[in-house]
Amino acid sequence: MLALQKLGERLTGLSATQLGRMPLSETMLAALAEAKRIKSLNALRRHYRRLGKLLQQEDLDAIHQVVDELDNKHQASVAKFHNLERWRDRLIEGDSEAFGAFLAEYQNADRQHLRQLIQAAKREQEKGGSPQAFRKLFKYLREVSGL
């Protein structure tokens, strides 16, 4: 029962579009909407118990599957973000192999524009100024990768 209450608590944190992907009854959707309006901690705790009881009547396997997909999607985007940060650092270090490898992986990247952004970020790093070019480079890397 406690696991169902925790699942109900987790579901209250999801957006309406995310909840729309789940096979939930109208009663359950109304209870989740009501939980978002409750401010009192004790009332919220009681409501989580109610959500746990309502979840007993739902298709738990399908709900768990959608929740897991949402969690994995978030983890995948974080991993892509960290990968781009590593690319940015390698490109600024001046490794020509890294430049070639990046262009091989992301073929839609503009070679000349990328080289200009890298040079500006290097100059900025040497001078110790504000990281404006550093940010522009990262923004371009995100744009090229589709993140």
Automatic annotation (TrEMBL):
Which CDD domains does the record associate with it?
YjgA-like
User: InterPro entries given for it?
Assistant: DarP, DarP_sf
Protein's UniProt name: DUF615 domain-containing protein
The root-end lineage is:
Bacteria, Pseudomonadati, Pseudomonadota, Gammaproteobacteria, Chromatiales
Tagged with keyword rRNA-binding:
yes
**What is one GO biological process annotated to this record?**
ribosome biogenesis
Please give the GO cellular component terms listed in this UniProt entry: cytosol
Does RNA-binding show up as a keyword for this record? yes
Q: What NCBIfam families does the record tag this protein with?
A: PRK05255.1-1 (NF003593)
Q: Which UniProt keywords apply?
A: Cytoplasm, Ribosome biogenesis, RNA-binding, rRNA-binding
Q: Which GO terms describe its molecular function?
A: rRNA binding
